[in-house]
Amino acid sequence: MIFLLTFLPNLTITLPTLLRGAVPTWLPLWMVAVAGVSALTGYVLSGALLRPLHRLEAEVAGGRVGEAHGDDPAEVRALRTAFAGLLSRLGTEQSRRSAFMATLVHDLKTPLIAAGHLTRLLTGGGLPETERRGVGEQMLAETGRLLTLVDQMADAHRFERDDVQLRRAPTDLHRLLGSVARRLSPRAAERGLSLSVAGQGEAVVDAAALERAMTNLTENALRYARRGAALSVVPLPSGGVGLRVQDDGPGLAAPLADLAQPFNAQPATIAGQQYTAGTAGLGLFIARRIAEAHGGELHYSRTPPDLPGDHAPTAPSAPPLTTFTLCLPEVSP
Known about the structure:
Number of helices: 8
Number of strands: 9
Shape: elongated
Number of domains: 3
Distance between the termini: 71 Å
Largest sheet: 5 strands, mixed
Radius of gyration: 33 Å
CATH class of the largest domain: Alpha Beta
Structural class: alpha+beta
Low-confidence stretches: 268-278, 306-315
Strand content: 15-25%
CATH topology of the largest domain: Heat Shock Protein 90
Order of helices and strands: HHHHEHEEHEEHEEHEE
Mean pLDDT: 76
């Protein structure tokens, strides 16, 4: 294109002379010379213009975009910034998925190994009937953990990519929390924890999706609680209603926005113990997406808040409480 733009004016000037038939002997040589100069000019200019793009192309192909160069035009600088952000997000996502897969393998392996040992006990024979029944119950529990993890994986994958489809209907929220408590009461009893339900309220919600979200939050509470967990329906200052899960566990080691991700398995230290946010992060992510689908939010608070350093709470008999509140903006009359 640059060659044509350079050579076209000369061709326009010489073309009438060629049409009249009066062709000087030097004119063809002149046109060849001008064509050569035009081609060289076009090659040099195009190389100078495309050099920043070729350099950026090589950096993107290598998976790493560096700082802008002095000869980069504004358009290439904008592309460089966009590609750098994209590669950074892709790298973060890949790291999260790799860490999550490592956690998933561990979480799947644990119940599978336990189920294998229990199966060997059953097939080995010689167990009294009461012990056989106990082994069978343990196998059912391990199978239930596997199914729960698989269900959470499927939900997280769907909620990460698609909008949550809701089937709303007037719902008794106290009854919904009671159903969650009845389902998880055996798990609470195994750890010697209390699990209570309080409050009244109704809302037009998807009961199945909301029960799934509250089950995830309650399971996390029972996993870390020291004495118990409490489920309640509470009014919100905004006029909506909240479904609250409260426990006396150590709380979150990072902001909720960082942990409530579908592929986040970064280890964290909570109250001196090592925890992995992998599968717990799945439950938080699903609860957050269900809350957002209802037009609400998932909030986390610590009462009283954790104090830095040696500043301990003044009332050690009242331990800090971890609170998750699934906020719903609309309540039925």
